[in-house]
Amino acid sequence: MEIPVSHIHLSGVACDVLHLEKAFPNGEGNKYFKLKYNLVEARNTGKDTILSFGGAFSNHIHALAVEGKENGFNTIGVIRGEEDPDNPTLQFARAMGMQLHFISREKYRQKQDEIFRKELQEKFGDVYFLPEGGTNAYAVKGCSEILRGLEDAFDVIYCAVGTGGTLAGLISTPGLRAKIIGIPVLHGEDILEADVRRLLEDQEMHNANWELATGNHFGGYAKHTPELIAAMRRWKTEYDLITDPVYTGKVFFAAEQLLQQNISLQNKKIAILHTGGFQGIAGWEYRFGSLFT
Ligand SMILES: *Cc1c(COP(=O)(O)O)cnc(C)c1O
Predict the structure, then answer these.
(1) From CA 78, how far away is CA 89, in angstroms rounded?
(2) DSSP letters along 194-256, please?
(3) Which of 36, 75, 83, 280 is least crowded, fewest Cβ atoms below 10 Å from its Cβ?
(4) How far is it, in rounded angstroms, from Cα 115 to Cα 35?
(5) pTM
(6) Are the C-beta atoms of 151 and 174 separated by less than 8 Å?
(7) Which protein residue has the closest C-alpha to ligand 1 atom 11?
């Protein structure tokens, strides 16, 4: 697979945009790679149904619905909160054949517990459990293939961080020269570094070149400011670059600031990984209003 590339300037610095979102017909982006070896593992263990967890606007749930259908699996989405029949993400997941199961926020917090798993197994049978966001060692392995062919192309690569699975995979790219800078877009930054280190230990990547650029999440998941939205509109006008306000918008915003502040970066080869998230735009507009028009 070849990733489409475009060229932009952020704070006057030339950057390559690696368009993962354009590499897949349904815009799965990084989620394609996170699912890849999980699907293999599900098949190898004889499972025909994959169950996972997510919020009502989750990119992961959306991508699982697509990839499950494409690869002949039944899929079950255990969704936090109450059912909303007008939610575009869930409408799509259902149209792909995903079965949805709604649970309270309180119950959702128990998603890792053995007892709750047993309950789900009694209800749904012998399913393949995929954690929230799809992050596990198989996801990291899949994401270690994203930069294949680009091992030597860049000095610095910026990328969105949710659970850290994608970041851990990028860092684990065999033979990678670039430093990976992860931009956390949710809250809980304090535990992220340890989470990423744990995922890296599984891959025996202890001394890799990476860091988290914290303080760029705008207050947490789907939180935003007029400045962020204005910058997204500016990139759309200048470069026809579409970002989403939950993940990639924050990454480009942070990169713009970091490149401005750090003169030593200005003659480096910089790339920004566009991880996808387009489906989230519909969900965002559904809640907060029109983004680009
Ligand atoms: C899920 C997602 C991420 C974060 O991936 P993690 O592996 O959870 O860190 C980044 N960008 C987009 C567009 C996503 O959908």
Answers:
(1) 13
(2) HHHHHHHHHTT--S--EEE--S-STTSTT---HHHHHHHHHHHHHH-----TTTHHHHHHHHH
(3) 83
(4) 25
(5) 0.96
(6) yes
(7) 275
Q: Whose CA is nearest to atom 2 of ligand 1?
A: 162
216 C-alpha to ligand 1 centroid (Å): 15
Percent of the chain past pLDDT 70, that is, above it, reads 99
Span 274-289, pLDDT tens digits? 999 999 898 889 988 8
Burial of 1-36, coded b for 16+ CB within 10 Å and e otherwise, reads: eebeeeebebeebebbbbbbbbbbebbbbbbbbbbb
Strand residues in the chain grouped as ranges (E): 5-10, 13-19, 49-54, 74-80, 99-103, 128-130, 156-161, 179-184, 210-212, 270-274
CB–CB of 96/73 below 8 Å? no
Give the whole-angstrom CA distance, residue 144 versus residue 71: 21
Question: What are the pLDDT digits (tens) for 213-228?
Answer: 999 988 888 888 999 9
Locus of tokens 């851990």? 168
CA atoms within 13 A on the CB side of 200: 21
Q: How far apart are CA 191 and CA 29, in angstroms?
A: 25
Residues in contact with ligand 1 by the CB-under-6-Å rule are 29-31, 59-60, 133, 135, 160-167, 247-248, 275-277
Atom nearest to 165 CA in ligand 1: 7
Q: Which two tokens stand for residue 230?
A: 């204005």
| Residues present in the chain in total | 293
Mutate to test the pocket of ligand 1, among 144, 275, 278 (most ligand atoms within 8 A of CB): 275
